[in-house]
Design brief:
The protein is α+β, with helices and mostly antiparallel strands. The protein has 6 helices and 15 strands.
């Protein structure tokens, strides 16, 4: 494992930040300053950033069922409960891939692996996210066209990719965008309040029957599927202006 990835796995920061620490001579291996980006410390080496001894944890990837009332952040300025209050303290420092607002529930990915495919939740790449939505009154199917066609939020057109009624007040909604509180705001625009919002899928990963507030490790097959999805996304990425000019 290269030095910058080793430091990132130890929770020091992003690989770019770790590169900066290495370049500035703040990293030592066995008491010697190391500015060699290709260095690969082992478990027997003593790696320090400044005076702090660091050790890379084993990669950990978990599916987590966020309950309502918790924020998707490590610390909250308003002292609200966070999702990290619900995972074991013995775990290495985790960060979340994907967010849900405080009153929403459902699937998040928690990991300590900075190499993990973060494009899965970036709105640019249009990875599908599926939700079950409960409304405050009976749904009028005639309004679906407006939501599928899109409305403007924050200066951009917000669209629902797919919408299927699964009960008088319950809908299954698929998004390929990530506008702040998008589903709640879109339904409010057509005269509804969202009473419950549960994310049930991110790309190929499903929430299944995981109880609220609980977690489970991702299976090997799930990891392969998610990483394959990121490769597909990379291949579909639009060419940059520089690439177009050089072609």
């Amino acid at each position: 494992m290269r030095l910058n990835r080793y430091l990132a796995a130890a929770g020091i920061g992003s690989r770019r930040h770790c590169d900066e620490l290495i370049a500035s001579g703040q990293v030592t291996i066995n008491a010697r300053v190391c500015t060699d980006f290709s260095a690969q410390p082992t478990g027997q080496d003593h790696v320090k950033v400044g005076r702090k001894l660091v050790r890379a944890g084993r990669p950990l990837h978990i599916a987590f069922h966020k309950p309502a009332g918790f924020v998707s952040t490590r610390k909250d300025p308003n002292s609200r409960d966070t999702i990290f209050d619900l995972v074991p303290s013995r775990f290495p420092r985790l960060f979340n891939i994907g967010r849900l607002d405080a009153q929403s529930e459902g699937l998040l990915i928690l990991t300590n692996d900075r190499e993990f495919p973060q494009r899965l939740t970036h709105p640019r790449y249009k990875i599908e996210k599926e939700y079950e939505v409960t409304l405050d009154r009976r749904w009028d199917p005639a309004l679906a066209t407006k939501l599928l066609r899109g409305i403007y939020l924050d200066g951009q057109r917000a669209q629902i990719a797919r919408l299927v009624a699964i009960g008088p007040t319950r809908l299954r909604v698929v998004l390929r965008q990530g506008i702040n509180r998008q589903i709640r705001r879109m339904f409010y625009d057509v005269g509804y309040e969202v009473e419950r919002l549960v994310r049930t899928r991110m790309g190929t990963l499903r929430l299944g029957d995981l109880p609220r507030g609980s977690w489970r490790p991702l299976t090997h097959a799930e990891l392969i599927s998610l990483r394959s999805l990121e490769k597909d996304v990379s291949q579909k990425r639009p060419a940059s202006r520089r690439q177009l000019q050089s072609s």
